[in-house]
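Quick one: structure tokens for this chain, please?
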Amino acid sequence: MKRVLARAAAFDNRRPDPLVLEAWLAAIGDLDPTDALDAVVAHYGDSVEWIKPGHIRARVKRVRAERLRSADLALPPADPDARDYGPQLRKLLGEIADGRTVSRALDSAPTKGTEPPAEYIAARGPGYVRRRAALAVPCPLVGCRMGPGRPCRAPGSRRSLTAGYHPARLDAARAELDAQETPWT
């Protein structure tokens, strides 16, 4: 909430002190910080009024309601007669209102050592099978040498590559698969 109050101060030159921060935490500390920051910006984008916690809460409430209105509300994969159906539905609605993308396919994520279902692979996007294969082997690139399961990094950098692997790693994965499929004679 400190960042939210600082963002408001950047717009209206208020001088927040610890008591003000404590009051704001009591009033809107339960809100998602990103939504609250966005609410401050939106408020000063169309109002000259000094922002108060109530303004932020009202804007966040409208954003959450709009997310729910515009979401594809697929029911949770549960028996409506089951005891946990209500909590699952509330969790789903909370995730949508929080702005998190909810995908039913991801509920069927594979357990370690099993192949994922087609819905899971489709939800992970194009290139998932290649990424999965590449990340199953260590990277052979001298400047990288990341182990299985760890994304490749640019030489001399700590940042992961956007693709997640070097082309040489994908070649190594293909070679390993070919070696496994070739019968030894």
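Residues 139 and 146 are 5 Å apart (CA to CA).
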